[in-house]
């Protein structure tokens, strides 16, 4: 895998500034920085954010790989 870019979700949960996939791309891997996300939520004192342990989040990063067709749009839950 080659890093093509980085993004953060907007209020709608979308990453609108991700780059287009290169021609011939068949698989994509997304890495979600969950530790930073939940740390920010905890700092904002949102009640539904899970507690971050002293040693960091239980899953500090979540990586998802999936098959793609360039030009298509995908919803990753």
Automatic annotation (TrEMBL):
Annotated ranges, domain Transthyretin/hydroxyisourate hydrolase: 4-77
A Pfam entry, by short name: Transthyretin
Keyword Hydrolase annotated: yes
Record-level Gene Ontology MF annotations: hydrolase activity
Keywords for the protein's UniProt record, in alphabetical order: Hydrolase
GO BP annotations listed: purine nucleobase metabolic process
Listed InterPro entries: Transthyretin/HIU_hydrolase_d, Transthyretin/HIU_hydrolase_sf
PANTHER family, per database record: 5-HYDROXYISOURATE HYDROLASE, URICASE AND TRANSTHYRETIN-RELATED
Descriptive protein name: Hydroxyisourate hydrolase
